[in-house]
Amino acid sequence: MIEDAPVVAERFRDEHWPEVEALYLACFGHQTRDAGALARCQREMTGAGWVVRADARVVGFGSVAKPDTRYDFADWQVVEAVVLALHPEARAWVASSGIRAHTTATDWLRYLPGARVGTAVGVDPSWRRRGVARLLAEARIEDARRGGARAFIVSCIQGSGSEVLYRELGFDMLVTVPDHYLGGEDMGVLGLRLGEPCDRDRYVWLQPTPRMVRAWRLRMVVQGGGLAATCGAVGAAWPAAFWWMALLVAWGVGFTWSTGSFRKPGPRELVIPGS
Ligand SMILES: CC(C)(COP(=O)(O)OP(=O)(O)OC[C@H]1O[C@@H](n2cnc3c(N)ncnc32)[C@H](O)[C@@H]1OP(=O)(O)O)[C@@H](O)C(=O)NCCC(=O)NCCS
Questions:
Q1: Are residues 93 and 189 in the same domain?
Q2: Is 247 in the pocket of ligand 1 (CB under 6 A)?
Q3: What is the dihedral of CA 156, 158, 159, 164, to 10 degrees?
């Protein structure tokens, strides 16, 4: 509990960032696999995150992902935990769907319709066990509730102090991602329901990553260039065989087209069956 006033929770503003960055590094610097984590934390926090100030300095921060944030992943962005949090009836379907749980679970969580996602909490070591994280959690949850969110979702090291805190606040464990952190710890994703499960928006969007689009472009260039070079070479060496070659190529292109490999990756809707 915080006894020594004044300790206040306030919305994150850009001028807090230098202090938050130092805190973030002190709390997570050795843990994160992701080089862009700090910049992302800042992007997320602007307007949505909270800090706790005491002794005229920032002693804790709690980031909240903006609902419309989009990130660059290694693969399709899948939103499993959104489904689990807001569509409990879909648990069995998710379990049997073979959807790959991306290790950056907090990233795909943000696609849950109607959910707020708290991403990171860090407290100055000299201020721990004095209620700062609790204050941050309560501020973010209250804010989400006022904003009409149907669920609040967080992730943390399984079995850690923050899991204890979130469970005390009524969160349920939704999903665990083994060996998520650099130290080999498992990540737990916990959810607190704030409203009714959604009765609409029964879908999630899968976004292609820039990597996927780049791979597609490269394929097009290599395939197109290869075909043109082959036709050119055959036409030059055996003019009589050129039309047969062109026919063969046209058949090949038609066949490849029908398999969908020329299609540029675009957003896909994943429909969630349920009552
Ligand atoms: C986890 C962390 C955010 C907790 O911050 P904190 O301000 O010390 O937490 P609080 O004082 O608000 O604790 C609230 C409750 O959470 C639980 N809790 C907090 N830290 C705990 C710990 N180390 N072990 C067990 N329970 C703990 C307790 O139930 C506590 O209530 P109590 O003090 O009345 O027993 C802080 O230790 C930290 O920054 N750790 C490094 C970064 C990190 O792991 N962040 C969480 C992952 S996103």
A1: yes
A2: no
A3: 40
Task: Tell me the CA–centroid distance for residue 162 and ligand 1, in Å.
Answer: 5
How many Å apart are CA 58 and CA 83, to the nearest integer? 35
- Its domain, for residue 158, covers 7-206
Tokens of 104: 């950056």
| pLDDT band per the 50, 70, 90 thresholds, residue 231 | confident
The answer on 104 and 229 residing in a single domain is no
Residues 75, 268: Cα–Cα separation, whole Å: 13
Residue 153 backbone class (left: φ over 0; alpha: ψ -120 to 50; beta: rest): beta
Q: What is the mean pLDDT of residues 50-63?
A: 94
Q: Which of 129, 155, 190 to mutate to test the pocket of ligand 1 (most atoms within 8 A of CB)?
A: 129
- Three-state secondary-structure class, residue 6: coil
Q: Is the CB of 129 under 6 A from ligand 1?
A: yes
In terms of pLDDT, which residue wins out, 84 or 266? 266
Over range 22-29, report the average pLDDT: 88
- Ligand 1 atom closest to residue 120's alpha carbon, by position in its atom list: 48
| Amino acid in the structure at residue 88 | P
Query: What's the rounded Cα separation, in Å, for the pair 58 and 80?
Result: 34
Taking the C-alpha atoms of residue 98 and residue 254, their distance in angstroms, rounded to an integer, is: 31
Residues 262 and 135 placed together within one structural domain of the fold: no
Number of residues in the chain: 275
